[in-house]
Write a structure and sequence with these properties.
Mean pLDDT: 87
Number of domains: 1
Distance between the termini: 90 Å
Strand content: under 5%
Largest sheet: none
Structural class: mainly alpha
Length: 92
């Protein structure tokens, strides 16, 4: 092997090592980015489900009040007034 070939081989080896190091860093950054993205969506979906779980009793009470006020068809005035007062109490 001539000195020129040996020098070329050593330069190629150094470039290959440097390229491998860069590729490993890129892959590590890609994995980290994927983990953060998954964590982001888990937090967003978890907060959404948690908020619905927290608000669900109020929504159910509003739906019950709405159906009792407007779903009964012919409700007398006293029932409607008591339902509206219970709606106002719920909103407070």
């Amino acid at each position: 092997m001539t000195p020129e070939e040996r020098s070329l081989l050593e330069r190629t080896y150094k470039l290959t090592e440097e390229n491998n190091e860069i590729l490993r860093k890129m892959r590590r950054a890609n994995r980290f980015s994927l983990a953060l993205r998954i964590g982001y969506w888990v937090i967003i979906l978890g907060l959404t489900v948690g908020a619905f779980y927290f608000i669900q009793p109020y929504v159910d009470a509003l739906i019950d009040t709405y159906t009792s006020v407007f779903g009964a068809g012919t409700a007398d005035a006293s029932t409607t007034q008591s339902d509206m007062s219970s709606l106002l109490e719920l909103l407070r």
